[in-house]
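Q: How do we represent a protein-ligand complex in a form that can be generated token by token?
A: Start from the inputs.
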Amino acid sequence: MSTEPTLLQTLAKPVVFQMPRRLIAPPSWTMHAPLAMWLIEMLRPSVFVELGTFSGTSYCAFCQAVQHLSIPSKCYAVDTWKGDPHASMYGEDVFKELSAYHDANYASFSRLVREDFDSARSHFADGSIDLLHIDGYHTYDAVKHDFESWRPKLSNRGVVLFHDTNVHERDFAVAQLWDELKRQYQSIEVLHGHGLGILLVGSDVPAPLREVARHLIASGDDLRLFQDFFAHLGRACLLEVEDSQKRAEIRRLEERVVELERDGTKLLNRCAILEGEAQGLNQEVGRLALEIRKERAQPKGMLAPLRIMKRAVVGPRSE
Ligand SMILES: C[S@@+](CC[C@H](N)C(=O)[O-])C[C@H]1O[C@@H](n2cnc3c(N)ncnc32)[C@H](O)[C@@H]1O
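Then emit the structure tokens for the protein with S-adenosylmethionine bound:
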């Protein structure tokens, strides 16, 4: 009987069933969290670098796995945190919120490098990076430049991830570069979550990962099993993000209801005061009407001296 683990046993590491802790918009990378965590376990990278972090969905999934598995990795997120024409330009609040979360959770092994990809490159020695995730600007020229300029930084265990290999719209062209690269290197690709390509670049990538890639290239069934396994886990993560967004919306609406109830109570109190004032005024009107009626009921003779006096002062036309 073979003692080799089956493909499913190789995939079903406990770490892949973790729910990513950082559930935040945009959710485009959320579905890849289980695969990111699996790769961290398979590669145990000494140095992990991400090019393009935005609000940190992908980066924090990698960091979560490093922390959970107690791997002695150094992790770096590189971004200007300004945006680009595909991700859209965004404000300072994105970096502020991420750094607060990051510093509270991962500062012991991770750094946020707020620089352009080109200028940040000089901080890394050649041959030092085991895992590189490229998720910056997605035109053909930009992604090719990111890959080629960072390739010398890869160690001989080096693996490169490309996000958006399955996006075929506007001038997104990771797919085009991916088609070229997968002919030159061993690779694995999943199609869900806009596509994620795993390129085994180094000559000494850990054997278990090479074995998985070899299996998937040899067998369509194994490839489908791999893709379905991570797509199903990814969907669970996406549902969790959607749930947490709905829960946040429910909390917001509940707070609004409390606010409206408070305003309603204030208005009811004001109504009660105005009603009291209106009752008082009604009573006053009733009292005056009674007085007028009484006065009109007086015999004419009793008022005659007053009328005579009035006519004398203001003239006959005022009667
Ligand atoms: C698609 S987003 C990254 C998404 C992220 N991985 C996630 O999980 O949500 C692309 C990011 O790359 C950054 N970026 C693009 N080109 C860059 C460059 N040349 N230098 C630094 N940052 C860049 C943008 O600021 C943007 O935040």
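The chain has one domain: 7-248. Residues 26, 29, 52-55, 57-58, 79-80, 82-84, 87, 116-117, 135-137 surround S-adenosylmethionine (CB under 6 Å).
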